[in-house]
Amino acid sequence: MIMRMLLRCSLLLSFLLLSGCSTLKPGGMFAIDEVKPWHKALLAEERMQLNPYPLENSADQKIYYSRESANGGQGVGGGGCGCN
Amino acid sequence: MADPLKAVLLTFILLVPGAALSAGSAPEFELDGLKGKVKLSDYRGKVVYLDFWASWCGPCRKSFPWMNEMHARFKEKGFRVVAVNLDSKRADADKFLTQLKPNFDIAFDPPGEIAGLYELQGMPSAYLIDRNGKLHSIHLGFRNKDIPLLEGEIEALLNSVEN
After folding, report:
1. How many CB pairs under 8 A join A and B?
2. Quick one: angle between helices B58-74 and B90-100, nearest 10?
3. Which residue of A has its CA nearest to B114?
């Protein structure tokens, strides 16, 4: 009985989460609004990118790869010694 | 025990907004433009490329020179570009406009009401509307490889006899 109730609750919860939160506003269960495409201005900012400073990151990776004899994979190798 | 649960479920199913943008006439709108109001019905008889953009959107920036070119090339044949801005801050839009100097009509929809009406799926989105105000096609995003297709569709609509 308890298992069945739990199952039902989880089903209901998953349905609520999948159906998009904006539909839940009248019920007041979540005060979350759906993010529309035109609301993504902040996400598009440079400082919000996964790699906000590509040049700096590339320099860091080069040092990490060539000086610490780590395994590369970032496409930047070579320490200038001709050995890499 | 199951009945109240079913009722709750049914309520949520019915609450999900499922009404897709109906094929047929493009939803009417009236927005502030650079010079007075921009109203869709005023473009009846023209082929309209209704574009939604924002200053922070990269592909939008790429689409503007192309839209300028299209507008210049097909203006005489009755082609119009209406670009609806969705920036929440007008200053951002103005800066973008001074950089890209569009020669077509710009409208401003900071709350995104019209974008909601058109059920925008992404930025930029373009809605091609024929001379009778009917929605012809929706184009999501702007890629260089889409350009020939878009130009073909615009020309076909301009040359179409039934419009």
Report:
1. 46
2. 50
3. A38
The total domain count for chain A is 1
**Mean pLDDT taken over chain B:** 88
Q: Report chain A residues whose CB lies below 8 A from the CB of B56.
A: 40-41, 44-45
**Would you list the domain boundaries of chain B?**
59-163
Cβ(A41)–Cβ(B90) below 8 Å: no
- CATH fold of B59-163: Glutaredoxin (3.40.30)
Closest residue to B17, CB basis, from A16, A23, A45? A23
State the ipTM, two decimals: 0.70
List all residues 6 or more positions away from B35 whose beta carbon is below 8 Å from its beta carbon.
none
Decide if A55 is inside a domain. Answer: yes
Do A37 and B8 lie within an 8 Å CB cutoff?
A: no
Q: Give the confidence band of A7 by pLDDT, cuts at 50, 70, 90.
A: low
Q: Which pTM was predicted?
A: 0.71
